[in-house]
Amino acid sequence: MNSVNLRHPYHLVDPSPWPILGGFAAFVFASGLIFSFKHGPAILVLGLISVLLVTFGWFRDITREGLGGKHTTKVQSGLMLGVLLFLGSEVLLFISFFWAYFHSSLSPDIVLGGVWPPIGIVSVDPWSIPLLGSIILLSSGATCTVAHNALINGNKDLAVATMFATVVLGFLFVGLQATEYYVSEFSIADSIFGTVFYMTTGLHGTHVIIGAIFLTVMLVRMVRDQFTTHHHLGLEFSLWYWHMVDVIWLFVFLTYYWWGSTYSNANDARHHLHYYPLIIGVLIINYRKYMY
């Protein structure tokens, strides 16, 4: 049987407990989120810990398979396709929140005063903390690209240094986001504006935290010489994820902080929507250069 397996490039995985355990952990986490509204966060914390443990175990096994030579070119292609589909689903998730935002802002309901932001809402100044956060996050996208190119060229010291800088910038962005929430003059309960704002920026912040942890793991593996100039699939995936977070934040900043804020004329800002296709085109051109 083993001799037959060696005649094809596919990786036949061994029986694994992680799929069923992952489903159970996700169920406990979702149930805990519901129960936390009336019965405290105990089940929610248990579910979160379970999800983290399953994620660690599953990723550890995948890493071991790669180090064991089981990630052939064909297997890598399949993993890449899976990650791309996952990233696509993440983008669609954010599109749903943008859809809700534009649905409410382009034609404000009379309950909101017929204006956007609603009467009584003082939005976050886009040229203060959000602008600084944007500079930091987009800079992290540049540093991680430098790290990738340095690894390909065999410059480990530069790769480690710039990857460390990327991780620091990522967590610094999270700190700025928390500070912004603390000083904000409106809450998630303040009309549809507050709800969609905090849901979208909170979801993005969660992705930044996950991405920063992902990059931290890749940094540790890089220090331990687990990557070569030709085989560093985990690092590639972490960079794809991080660049997705960068691009999504750009649209969050332009839409939630600038276009729909009290610090710009909303009626005039709506006429600037035609810049969005141009921005998308520039991003596609730049990331095609990165990918190829």
UniProtKB/TrEMBL annotation:
One GO CC term, this protein: mitochondrion
Family matches, as PROSITE patterns: COX3 (PS50253)
InterPro entries recorded: Cyt_c/ubiquinol_Oxase_su3, Cyt_c_oxase_su3_dom, Cyt_c_oxidase-like_su3, Cyt_c_oxidase_su3-like_sf, Cyt_c_oxidase_su3_a-hlx
Gene Ontology MF, one: oxidoreductase activity
Keywords: Membrane, Mitochondrion, Oxidoreductase, Translocase, Transmembrane, Transmembrane helix
Record Pfam families: COX3
Topology relative to the membrane: Multi-pass membrane protein
SUPFAM superfamilies: Cytochrome c oxidase subunit III-like
Superkingdom: Eukaryota
Chief location of this protein within or outside the cell: membrane
Keyword Zinc (UniProt): no
Gene Ontology BP annotations: mitochondrial electron transport, cytochrome c to oxygen
Compartments in which it is found: Membrane
Family affiliation: Belongs to the cytochrome c oxidase subunit 3 family.
Record's protein name: Cytochrome c oxidase subunit 3
Organism: Monoblepharella sp. JEL15
Gene (UniProt): cox3
